[in-house]
Amino acid sequence: MSLKGKTAVVTGAGSGLGRACAVQLARSGAAVAVWDLNAEGAAETVRIIKAQGQRAAPYVGDASAAADIGNILGRVRAELGPVLILVNNAGITGFSPFLDITQNALERIYRINLIGPFILTQAAIPDMLAAGWGRIVNISSSSAQTGAKGMAHYSSSKGGIIALTKSLALEFADRGITVNNIPPGFIDTPMTRSSPIDIDAIAAASPMKRAGQPEDIAAACAFLASEDAGYITGQTIGVNGGRVIS
């Protein structure tokens, strides 16, 4: 599944799922733009990749802000090449009773989780159209598949990602571009550990009796970005240990 000669952009790549995806894509041969709001996290991911002998560069900015998107993509193109692989991973979570969710909280989570990937994909996809080849992998959530009590704003924002995936897949299927999404289940990441849930108890109640690891998501991401997945588009590829079966 060599990605040699391809440039990949991974948002939220300074830790957790994004870091694992960036490292795995680099192992597969891609030059990786490691994008995160956290400069130290982005630099550490790049250090890991370079220590393995692969190519990567850090980019610090807001993946939901049009100005940052335009600036960073311009730098990526100049330094690494046209964007042919895009992993929309950056996101935030939220826990609140429905009646307590404020408009500000709703708009913030939608801006980061849904509007950001929308406008970033708009900005990146011309490179793929010019090449006649592209891979877009969106990270959604199993909460969008099942619903989640106390997470109406989060789960609905990720449901929008699933719908966006399907729409883009249909629009660009005949242009050499595939668009798929991965809805993780309970994955052991810093963001999950900081959430007000007992991940160990939830994982113990799951079919596999364990939490997933970021590398589980990264393996699926690298496959969807490869030539081997060239006839797969518009799909929701669940990596959840059997939590959601479709």
Give a summary of the structure in a few sentences.
With 246 residues, this protein is α/β, with parallel strands linked by helices.
How would you describe what is shown here?
The protein is an alpha/beta fold and 246 residues long. It has a single domain (7-229), classed as 3-Layer(aba) Sandwich (Rossmann fold). It is 47% helix and 14% strand. The protein is built from nine helices and six strands. Strands 3-2-1-4-5-6 form a six-stranded parallel sheet, with helices on both faces. Helix 1 crosses helix 9 (214-224).
Count of DSSP E strands? 6
Spell out the CATH superfamily.
NAD(P)-binding Rossmann-like Domain
User: What is the SS-derived class?
Assistant: alpha/beta
Into which percentage range does the β-strand content fall? 5-15%
What letter string, H or E per element, gives the SSE order?
EHEHEHEHEHHEHHH
**Kindly state the mean pLDDT as a whole number?**
94
Query: What's the number of domains?
Result: 1
Radius of gyration: 17 Å
The N- and C-terminal alpha carbons lie at a distance of 26 Å
Which second-level CATH architecture applies?
A: 3-Layer(aba) Sandwich
Low-confidence stretches: none
Cross-sheet strand order for the largest sheet: 3-2-1-4-5-6
CATH C-level class is: Alpha Beta
- The CATH topology: Rossmann fold
Instruction: Please count the helical segments.
Output: 9
* Gross geometry: globular
Q: How can the largest sheet be summarized?
A: 6 strands, parallel
